[in-house]
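Hey L., structure's done. Input below.
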Amino acid sequence: MTTMRITTRYPHPHTNERNSKTHLRHLGHRHLLLAVTALLLLQLLQLLHLLQPCAPTQSNHATALKQTLQIHVNVTKNTHIKQRRPNTTRGLRRPPRSMLKLPKGTRDFGPQDMALTMALIDKVKTAFKIHGAVEICTPVFETTDALKNKYGEESKLIFNLQDEGGEALSLRYDLTVPLARYMGSHNLDKIKRFQIGKVYRRDQPTLNKGRFREFYQCDFDICGSNLAKMAPDAEVIKAMEDALESLKLDYTISVNHRGLLSALANISGIPSSLFVSVCASIDKLDKKDPEFVIQEIVQKGVSLSSAMDFVSRVTLQIDKGVSGVSGMLDRILEQNQKLSQIPKAIQALEDLRLLTQYLQQMDGLGRVRLDLSLARGLDYYTGVIFEAKLNHKVGVGDGVGVGIGSIGGGGRYDNLIGMFGSKQIPAVGCSIGIERILAYLISIRDSNLKARRPKPSSNATTEANDATTQATDATPQANDPRNQRSFNGPTQASVLVATIDVPIQHKMRLCSELWRGGISAQMIHTHQMKPRKAIEYALDQQVHILLLLSLYC
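Output:
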């Protein structure tokens, strides 16, 4: 009767696998219960001396019965454990956290961030092409000898790769030194080029300020001899302005000259052998207090009085009544009369005046200002240097604003290309950092989304709403195509194809025809879908056209 009840309650295994497993589990419980009960009864009989131990035959039978029952109990336990073992095919074991952790100073680009990044790069690329630049591409790593002794104190930030096959390699620190190597390798005399690619720096990252160890750079350079003085410099600054204007940013470009900075250092009594190292410290004035910079300069072997005098000269405040770069240059010359006795300073002032005139002719002077504290810490700069910064700060956390540093910069480097060839080729270039601009735009987007949210009536409601939002975003239902929005973002397709009661092969054939005709199309990879869900998914993916295939109107 028991078997009949089990058979009636649990059908044959071939008809229902789940009921079959339940049937075996119930049988295992019952066998285990019967075996344990028999073993306990046997032990009880032995204790009550109902089984005579003096009779060898009965004793042997009792021992055999006990061993048989013990074996049955063990087999039943093993069977029971085997049936309770979890099915590993249903889900994989979660890997250790070390496998999921991102390397320090890097980030993942989701579809939305990647679409925004590519849009920024396309605008910058268009601005560079308008100026007649051609695009080149160099390897992401160079020989260590090519990058060595080119960046001064910044050389410690280069990522050196493991020696493979006797060739010392390093990840590129920027795109300028690879350009100089490119000019020397191909024996070129001149080029106006742009290059967009990732560079790598072993720096201490600050993600909320857009400081990463891996990031995009967009470079624009003009290289060549016998070019009109300061004309390439003016066009490079104008090209950077055009690129930033296309991104609708509010920014300021600070300009200085390495020759003028060197003359001020000479007046302050700083040895010329320490000038490049001191420039790396001066370049920190926008991030650190003057006292910190002075102490760092002193640690490099400069006297305290010379360090204080130099910092005071480069942080000189210009009267508000002075307008334009030319007026600033006149006032600087008045307050530093010794500059007129240094030929390098006179040459630097003439370069800056000529640069001002050219930028004014190209309508590129509106966002330019003179900043004597701008140093650009790299070794290879020899003339005009400049840097672009946003006029806004990025809101972080509770609304406190922080600066994200420069979003672009560059300068003249007349001696770098000669290190890779037999002749010196003057050059000037700029670089725009996409990651910092992206960090700024994302902060603006997030603040706008936060401002649009309705204000709750209490803190408890706020916490509840936040918890609900996090739970919804973190645990979407993978089976519902509409929830793929949180992962994929809006699709790039113009047509979405879905089927209601038509085989999926027809959907594939239709998409193939659309793709062949150059029309971007996307299919929903399900056999059938309700019209309402298809429409909601199309709206969520921001598709222009939805094609529903059905046998019925």
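Residues 17-47 form the longest helix (31 residues). The two ends are 56 Å apart (CA to CA).

-- N.
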